[in-house]
Design a protein that fits this description.
Radius of gyration: 18 Å
Number of helices: 10
Order of helices and strands: HHHEHEHEEHEHHEHHE
Structural class: alpha/beta
Shape: globular
Bound molecules: geranyl diphosphate, magnesium ion
Low-confidence stretches: none
Strand order of the largest sheet: 3-2-1-4-5-7-6
Strand content: 15-25%
Mean pLDDT: 96
């Protein structure tokens, strides 16, 4: 049964209200994600992995941007595919949760791949509306739905989920609170997959990491916090992949495009100096 009335008290602190305001402002200030999403209708809110095709930088100048946009989008979709590769055996009858679902792209990819029922939660009403209209447009509203709920207290039934993921959303919340909720939601043997950026424990929070936090109104956690919070909540890391080297080409290409937002150099600096890591963690609920 629900632990709360999920429709009320979704935004519980001044900080959560400021995060919601940031994402609700996206229709007015989104230089990159709508252009990339228009390529094929999957609107991502995460970064990319893998090498880019260098030929996109060559060729006619008037179609250069178009080639780069298509390539950046391909790398972002590859990141989501990689995340879903680690979700384990998911069937049509399973229910999964997209925690911090953005405009819904990873939920749609999961449903397309597994046929499973997907719920996405986000504290941005704008994102809920955008993603639900996408689900309607795709004719899958009965299988994929998005809710204005807080991922720290989703209200979904205990033990109802075979899989849960967060794709670059954990930097907005306390990890102990978050993983307690995921542990509650997951069945025994269920899988949690996290893709995140985290700070290096030895260097501490660098200037570049602080700049990224300011840009997105987030609070990047140290790498060690993930493992402490997982262990405290019966979630056992089964796969850990450092994706840092795999994501650098994405940032190099993005820095080279007219869509660059200014955050590219801090990401490249942080990754190259070793103060920041891009990580995939898959954990089993025991
Ligand atoms: C991706 O969103 C970024 C975040 C959700 C927050 C920060 C992530 C870290 C790994 C630190 P986006 O796709 O909306 O960003 P952008 O508009 O820059 O592409
Ligand atoms: Mg983006």
């Amino acid at each position: 049964m629900s632990t709360t009335n999920p429709g009320t008290d979704v935004l519980r602190s001044a900080y959560q209200k400021s995060v919601a305001a940031y994402w609700n402002n996206n229709p007015n200030d989104d230089r990159v994600n709508l252009r990339l999403g228009d390529v094929d209708g999957l609107y991502h809110h995460h970064y990319g992995v893998g090498d880019y095709d260098p030929s996109v930088l060559e060729g006619p100048q008037d179609t250069r941007d178009e080639r780069i946009i298509t390539e950046l989008h391909r790398l972002e979709t590859a990141q989501a595919d990689l995340l879903l590769n680690h979700l384990g055996q998911i069937t049509f009858d399973d229910q999964v949760l997209d925690a911090g679902s953005g405009r819904g792209a990873v939920s749609f990819m999961a449903n397309h791949r597994f046929g499973c029922r997907v719920d996405g939660v986000t504290i941005s009403k704008y994102q809920v509306g955008f993603a639900n209209s996408q689900a309607r447009h795709r004719g899958i509203s009965d299988r994929v739905s998005f809710h204005f709920r807080n991922m720290l207290d989703t209200g979904f039934e205990t033990g109802s989920r075979r899989g849960v993921w967060t794709d670059e959303t954990t930097m907005y919340v306390d990890l102990f609170d978050l993983f307690a909720e995921f542990s509650r939601l997951l069945k025994f043997g269920g899988r949690y997959v996290c893709v995140t950026g985290c700070s290096d424990d030895l260097t501490g929070r660098s200037e570049a990491v602080r700049t990224i936090d300011e840009h997105y109104t987030c609070n990047i956690h140290p790498r060690s916090d993930y493992f402490k919070a997982l262990a405290a909540n019966n979630l056992v890391p089964i796969t850990v992949i450092d994706l840092t080297a795999l994501t650098i080409p994405y940032w190099e290409l993005r820095a080279n495009s007219s869509l660059a937002t200014g955050i590219e150099e801090p990401f490249l600096t942080a990754y190259r100096e070793g103060s920041f890591h891009y990580l995939l963690i898959a954990a089993n609920r025991i």
